[in-house]
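Technical note accompanying the year-one report. For the benefit of new consortium partners, we illustrate the data format agreed upon in the data management plan: each record pairs a sequence with a structure-token string. No post-processing was applied to the example shown here.
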Amino acid sequence: QVQLVESGGGLVQPGGSLRLSCAASGSIVSIYGMGWYRQAPGKQRELVARISSDGSATYADSVKGRFTISRDNAKNTVTLQMNSLKPEDTTVYYCHANILSGRSVVSYWGQGTQVTVSS
């Protein structure tokens, strides 16, 4: 069994910062791509940022220059530093990882963490 556990969401004022963390645990052989997605009510889940095992990162246009994704391969963690937050960033954020467990690569999701940007 593999689990992704997120932390770091909460309430912040516009222009503020939050840091989301996600830790993978369980029967892990190797972790490939990791990333963060978000989903507003009634909308499709969208990519926020993703990072490959070699550290190459991709960002949604809406967060470029404000968010930074990083990972620690030794600790099986991925972090999203969110700066200059805007009210439109308010939604639930999900951690994602493609993990080799046993002989199969499986797509795993975290439980989601709420980010609210409001004054």
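Partners are asked to follow this layout when depositing records. The radius of gyration is 14 Å.
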